[in-house]
Design brief:
Layout lengths: L1 H21 L3 H5 L10 H12 L37 E3 L6 E5 L23 E3 L22 E3 L7 E2 L12 E3 L8 E2 L2 H10 L5 E3 L22 E3 L12 E2 L12 E3 L6 E2 L12
Parallel strand pairs: 2-3, 3-4, 4-6, 5-7, 6-8, 8-9, 9-11, 10-12
Antiparallel strand pairs: 1-2
Length: 282
């Protein structure tokens, strides 16, 4: 009898031991492996190739002042996970893991930005700020028109040259467009591109074209600007021949949401303020 009782106890101990070996502890069952990188591999690769396409990452543009942040993209190499969503200046859509925003203002980038750059493969971008870098000699590529979801585009004070491409008019969701240059008028906006921009960018709220050569644009074309427009900068600081010419339409003051209008420096522009009550909040 004693023998049978001992054997029964031994069997129970074996069962308990087997139970603890098979059934995981609560702490183990609750633990999970770290989440995979949010960033898509081809987008992190595209960003690194974009950064590496420039000859200098430490350019200091006097325009930037205290906002200068040279070498900021060098930190991209320090993240061995290659999760570009954690990189400086990069924002991703948390649901899809796509790069939707690049804020590289005054990041010290210097070199040519051509149409083959991998930047243009980031097709989900909604906001792009390249202001205060130095792409002198680069034209504003027609590839900038490949971002159908783009809402904010800032290429100001970055040394671009040549024509403003009409492909910018493809960015129908654009709310802010900034092409300003406070140092030299090297970007030119022709009438054909301007008409397409005015016709297609119906969601535009902020338009900054100070320093852009608009000498061929007729002032009366501004009557067709988006009624959503709140801010319009058209000043000319250096070369008066590049400014607007002719009679500026009074109807511009009828834009219902316009709050800021800068026409300074356009020596060949004439006109007068309307004598009636304006409907805009200027």
């Amino acid at each position: 009898y004693i023998y049978q009782k001992m054997m029964g106890s031994f069997s129970c101990l074996c069962c308990l031991l087997l139970f603890f070996l098979i059934v995981p502890s609560p702490s183990n069952s609750l633990s999970s492996p770290p989440p995979p990188p949010l960033c898509h591999p081809h987008e992190s690769s595209a960003l690194l190739q974009f950064r590496n396409s420039f000859s200098n990452l430490n350019y200091s543009y006097s325009f930037c002042g205290s906002a200068a942040n040279p070498n900021s993209t060098i930190s991209w190499d320090m993240d061995m996970s290659r999760d570009c969503c954690t990189w400086s200046g990069v924002t991703c859509d948390e649901a899809a893991g796509r790069v939707i925003r690049l804020d590289l203002e005054c990041s010290g980038l210097q070199g040519i930005l051509d149409s083959n750059n991998t930047l243009f493969s980031l097709g989900h971008l909604q906001s792009l700020d390249l202001s205060g870098n130095y792409f002198y000699g680069s034209e504003i590529s027609s590839q900038f028109g490949r971002f159908p979801n783009m809402i904010h585009l800032d290429l100001s004070n970055s040394g671009f040259t040549g024509q403003v491409p009409l492909e910018l008019s493809y960015l129908s969701n654009l709310v802010t467009l900034d092409l300003r240059s406070y140092y030299t008028s090297v970007v030119k906006l022709e009438t054909s591109s301007w008409k397409r921009i005015v016709a297609n960018l119906t969601n535009l709220q902020e338009l900054f074209l100070s320093g852009v050569n608009m000498s061929s644009v007729l002032p009366n074309s501004f009557m067709n600007l988006s009624t959503s427009l709140t801010t319009l900068y058209l000043s000319e600081y250096f070369i008066s021949e590049n400014g607007l010419k002719g009679e500026f339409p009074e109807n511009i003051f009828n834009l219902p949401n316009l709050q800021e209008l800068d026409l300074s420096g356009n020596a060949d522009l004439n006109g007068s303020f309307p004598q009636y009550n304006w409907s805009s909040p200027l």
